């Protein structure tokens, strides 16, 4: 019964994770990261974003940090999180790190507190580092598992 309960909990957690990552606000944040960010993005560039775009970026980043925190505390399966996050990290990891640095610099300037680096998005960076350590997929999933049948 305990094994079944654990399997059920993991399935529920994966479903919750999918709901977070498929939310319109999260998807908008990712889209902005992909389409409007570059690796040399600055705060000046960010002033061109409207409030809705900034909110979407914040939503995406804070939810990613929450997912990373829950993964670190083993509330979410690293395997499940990696399936969602590894492609994102591969495509946009550098841009996400730029965004995090930019938010941290802005927070330090506003708060006049260097401790921001110790607490703001630290779990996201931890998760991105773990994603960097994973081996690259051998092939796209549709090719790798072409013979899989339900």
Task: Describe what you observe in this structure.
- Helix 4 crosses helix 5, helix 4 crosses helix 7 and helix 5 crosses helix 7.
- This protein is globular.
- It has 150 residues and is mainly α.
- The chain contains 8 helices and no strands.
- The chain has one domain.
- The mean pLDDT is 88.
Topology:
Blueprint: H1 2-22, H2 24-35, H3 43-46, H4 51-72, H5 78-111, H6 116-119, H7 122-133, H8 141-144
Helix pairs in contact: 2-4, 4-5, 4-7, 5-7
Low-confidence residue ranges:
none
Number of separate domains? 1
Mean pLDDT: 88
Structural class: mainly alpha
Rg over alpha carbons: 17 Å
In oligomeric terms, what are we looking at? Answer: single chain
Strand content: under 5%
SS summary, helix count: 8
Please describe the biggest sheet, giving its number of strands, its sense, and whether it closes into a barrel: none
Tell me how many strands there are: 0
Shape: globular
Considering DSSP H and I runs of 4 or more, what fraction of the residues is helical? over 70%
N-to-C order of helices and strands: HHHHHHHH
Termini Cα gap: 25 Å
Question: Summary?
Answer:
By secondary structure, this protein is mainly α.
Keywords:
8 helices, mainly alpha, 150 residues
